[in-house]
Structures are given as structure tokens and as C-alpha cells.
Amino acid sequence: MNGPHELAEPEDQPMRGRGYEDFIRDHMPEFMRIAVQRLRNLHDADDAVMEAVLQIHAKWPRVEAHANPSALAKRMVHNAAVDFYRKRSRHDARHTTIVDRAIDADTLMEMRGYAPLDDAWAVLAERAPRQAECIRQRYYEGKTNTEIATDLNIAPNSVATNIHLGLKTLHTLMNLTSGDKGDN
Question: What was the pLDDT predicted at 59?
Fold first, then answer.
């Protein structure tokens, strides 16, 4: 290896050949969905996924030997997305820069629309992480109850219950009771 954080050349580590590359290629869309849902910015999500892919590469024998390599890799992507802004904030605190332009009112108004959903997601993820994960996989990844159950190691009926309860909690948190949904 060239250094502690650099990737080895393929000929240096033959066991990390086609298996790793195929795994990443097959799961990259799922990894991006996880990061985009968490970070809400395609460029930041891409950076977070690349960090996670480097971690997966460094720990490939462990990931490959895991009972559910896909679930472990997704957890690593999720953790990388959670840590992404933390790392940036620590870096920014040490390297303060002058903002070259002020945020205008239109940008603030556009961002304001996501605040209730983001707040509700944060509360749901803290209070009921399994419900939040079931909802995320169903609506952001488009998975079936059976696929979600396999990923989370729970029964398919539990997935349906978690989705129902999670949506109900999100609606309550966002003050969207059945009477407040509109004129439809």
C-alpha cells in the first residue's frame, strides 16, 4: 500500500477484485438514495457516498463476510451521510471563510418549505428509528415490505405496521390531520 489512507492497487489485493466492484456498481443507486434523502443535496450526497465507498473498500473482507453485506454497506452509507455535515462543520470552524454573497430572500423562502418535514423527520428518527427507516426505504427507495423486512431483519407485517405508525406520527408532527389536508 502507498499510505494508510490510500487504496491499494488491484494487483496488491487480488481478493478485492471483481466482487467489490460489482457490489458497488449494483448498490450505488441505493447508496445515493440513502444519502440524498438524508442530506437533500445531490453534490453533498455524492461526496458522502464516496466517503462510504472508501470505507467499504477498506473493510471489504469484513463486509463480504457479513451475513447481510448489503445491509452493512447501507448502514455505512447512512453513517457517512450523518457524519458528512459534522465533518464539514469541524473543518469550517477551523477554516473560517468570508461569504462571497448573501443569501437572498427567494432562497430563504424556498428552503422554508422543507423545514416542517425536516423537523418531523428528525423527531421521528429520534423517537422511532425503525419507523423512520421503514418509511425511508418504502418511499425513497421504492422497496416492498418483503425487501424491507429482509434488510431490517423483521417480519413483513411489522414493516407495514411501522410504515403506518410512522406516517401517522409524521402527519401529527406536521399538523396535517385529516381535516387540514385541503379541499379535496
Answer: 94
